[in-house]
Amino acid sequence: MSLSVDGPAPKEHARIGLIALATDLNSEADLRRMLPSDVDLYCNRVRNANPISLAAQRLIEQEIPRAGCDLLPGLDLDVMVFGCTSATIAMGEAKTLALLAQSHPSRYQTTPVTASLAALAHLGARRISILTPYRADVNLALGEYYESRGLEVINVSGLDMDDDYAMTALSPELIVAAGLRAMAPEAEALFISCTALRSSLAVERLEAALGRPVVTSNQAIIWHALNLMNHPATSAPGRIFNMPSQRQEA
């Protein structure tokens, strides 16, 4: 008895495509951990230089078309995600979103920058503190961009790092301590940048200690992707998942 298959298998789950950095040890597992069971994540990677620099990250735009094309060829995706906050800043948010849309058929596209801006707006937070693992030049570019999008960035606190592997090695306990130091008294929310950081594991402790919402790059990606698909909220950490959502276009 032979079996024949005509075309792709029926789609039962939503599909998210992730383009991650070759050196990112964290984002793929972190995103899967926060996703509902009926949403699947498929990942491909782009070559990147490690240690990180803005100049090197601008070159990643040459890799995105290849990585997107090779991600489940012939199948449409619900959301395409680029998984690096600082590289999105280096390449430009609009350019990154356009590259995602061109690289693979998908209904929506998002980046950690796009997602975090949407999450902060949904929380009603305009005055923010930012914690990053980055060095001063990346922090400056990131702070200026968030300011250009209408936020009041009170401070950007960096850990002076440029190695993806070292960033992932930072414990959630260290991130909690750094977040407590970084949060300005007048800030309405704390944004923790970088998909390589295991900061989603620190969100609940930080929110309990600070009494204010905390948004991280990976947590924001999950919230935004589900919101774009009009998918019910998941049990991921953070106040953002406890607030009623209205679908927002990327």
Detailed description of the structure:
There is one protein chain. The chain has about 250 residues and is α/β, with parallel strands linked by helices. β5, α7 and β6 form a beta-alpha-beta unit. The strands form two sheets. Strands 2-1-3-4 form a four-stranded parallel sheet, with helices on both faces. It folds into two domains: about 120 residues, Rossmann fold (3-Layer(aba) Sandwich); about 100 residues, Rossmann fold, CATH 3.40.50.1860. The N terminus is likely disordered.
| First and last CA, distance | 48 Å
The total of beta strands comes to 8
Q: Kindly report the average pLDDT value.
A: 93
Q: Largest sheet, described in full? A: 4 strands, parallel
Helical run tally = 11
The appropriate CATH architecture of the largest domain is 3-Layer(aba) Sandwich
Number of domains: 2
Helix content: 25-40%
Shape: globular
* Cα-atom radius of gyration: 18 Å
CATH topology of the largest domain: Rossmann fold
Beta-strand portion reads: 15-25%
Strand order of the largest sheet: 2-1-3-4
